[in-house]
Write a structure and sequence with these properties.
The complex is a heterodimer of chains A (123) and B (192). With 123 residues, chain A is α+β, with helices and mostly antiparallel strands. Chain A contains four helices and four strands. Chain A is globular and about 45 Å long. Chain A starts with 6 loop residues before the first helix and ends in a 13-residue tail after the last helix. Chain B has one domain: Heat Shock Protein 90, CATH 3.30.565. The chains are: A alpha+beta (123), B alpha+beta (192). At the A-B interface, helix 1, helix 2, helix 3 and strand 2 of A face helix 1, helix 4, strand 6, helix 5 and helix 6 of B.
Chain lengths: 123, 192
């Protein structure tokens, strides 16, 4: 097994994350869920989720939990992404490519404004 | 799907849906024997013989939102079209092991694709699952077990920005080191 990054390095990162949490600079309680059924994967959901994770890294967004779920029965709307901020109702977005994922992260997750034209209306 | 790594993601999602606690994803490239072998193994709820026999059929799925599943049948067809096979061993209450092999140099074999992306996302999206990833090629091996990392992190989330960077780089460096050893072997055989 080749040498990988050390756990010492991880320990340092953990301390920093805990420090940030104590300072309450985290966004707090934001959950982003990507539908990762066969239909979602075939429609590009892996790239969509990657764009979400990349924007968390790039914009240093603390306190965002990214999850996956299976097929939601709306395969024609995949990739589907749901965003839940604090106690606000869950918002479901459809046909979220990487570019739209970055936009949702910027406007909804960071800015707090639902991106209305991407919302799946009847959901 | 255009990549083997996307199929591996799809199959691992089946393991998650089967309530597995431990999931292993292994990729074994053997240039000498000209084979590419992938294994996804879980300790989820498993399937009985009847279900295993039918699961490669396009008209079987465990999902309730739709009645047709295409993930496994598509992968099986792709493997068989490349002098390969897809086998499933499963036992109710014990888990499932799916093995799929391709002739590595077959003209129709889809590329392995973004294996790191598949692993990285599974790891972050399903933190309650114990993940083991293995990549072998031409004598080199990268073995990733998330247990020590999670033990160290405690209740700190894997999706914290700096932790994401750590995980992504760990996977990237590991896979790259194996691919490099493969290139070295290739280069030396060309000299010979």
């Amino acid at each position: 097994m080749p040498a990988v990054k050390s756990l010492d390095e991880l320990r340092k990162l953990k301390e920093e994350a805990l420090e940030k949490r104590r300072a309450k600079t985290t966004a707090g309680n934001i959950q982003v869920t990507v539908a990762m059924g066969t239909c979602g994967i075939a429609a590009g959901a892996r790239e969509t989720m990657r764009a979400i994770l990349d924007s968390i890294e790039a914009d240093n967004l603390s306190g965002v939990v990214v999850k996956q779920t299976g097929c939601m029965g709306m395969c024609e709307m995949e990739p589907i992404v749901q965003v839940e901020v604090g106690g606000a109702p869950k918002v479901t977005y459809g046909k979220v490519n990487t570019e739209l994922a970055r936009r949702i992260m910027k406007e909804h997750v960071v800015g707090g404004h639902v991106v209305n034209e991407l919302v799946i209306p009847a959901y | 799907m255009r990549e083997i790594a996307l199929h591996l993601l799809d199959i691992a999602e089946n393991s998650v849906a089967a309530c597995a606690r431990d999931i292993t994803i292994a990729v074994d490239e053997d240039a000498r024997k000209d084979r590419l072998l992938m294994i996804v193994e879980d300790n989820g709820k498993g399937m009985d013989e009847d279900m295993v026999a039918r699961v490669v059929d396009p008209f079987v799925t465990s999902r309730t939102t739709r009645k047709v599943g295409l993930g496994i049948p598509l992968l099986k067809a792709a493997a068989e079209g490349c002098n390969g096979y897809l086998h499933i061993n499963s036992a109710v209450g014990r888990g499932t092991r799916l093995e799929v092999e391709f002739q590595r140099s077959h003209i129709d074999r889809m590329p392995l694709g973004d294996l790191i992306g598949t692993w990285f996302e599974l790891l972050v999206a399903w933190p309650q699952i114990h993940w083991i990833f293995r990549y072998r090629a031409s004598g080199g091996e990268f073995l990733f077990d998330d247990a020590p990392i999670k033990k160290e992190l405690g209740d700190v989330s894997l999706s914290e920005p700096s932790i994401l960077t750590y995980l992504r780089e760990t996977l990237q460096e590991g896979v790259k080191s194996v691919q490099k050893s493969q290139e070295d072997i290739h280069a030396s055989s060309q000299i010979a």
